[in-house]
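ESCALATION

Customer reports they have been waiting on this structure for their group meeting. Please prioritize. Original submission:
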Amino acid sequence: MKLSPCLAFGGDAEEAMNFYLAAIPGSRAAQVMRAGESGPGPAGALIAATLEIGDDRLLLLNGPDAAPSMAVSLFLSCDSQEQVDRLWDSLCAGGKPIQCGWLTDRYGVSWQIVPKGTMELLNHPDRARAQRAMQAMMRMVKLDIHELERAADGR
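Update from on-call: job pushed to the front of the queue and completed.
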């Protein structure tokens, strides 16, 4: 069994697909389904696309037009701070930074851009260390693993 989220775009799925492919290095369109001569929609229009992002899949669907909610977000665990910085800048373009590594992209989709090691710091067995990391994270918008580590160390 494998879980893959599906995002519905009311007519903007192709634009969103191209945006995500450009924003997320190494991603690719694994499957693209287009309307035929008999529909649905104009011939050649994107119906759905499956993006591969690392080992995961994200389905983009043209319709129904439903507003995304922060109640559901896409969590991207990044291997380095440089990757965090690049993804943050790319996905936030035309969107809105929030707090604690969260952003909303130009389509209203919520993302959490998290550097590798963050969850370990926040769940550290030394609760004082974990609390210092949590307090530092709560003051951040884009997460910075080096700052989180310094805070956890009490520096």
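Sent to customer with the following note: The two ends are 44 Å apart (CA to CA).
Escalation resolved.
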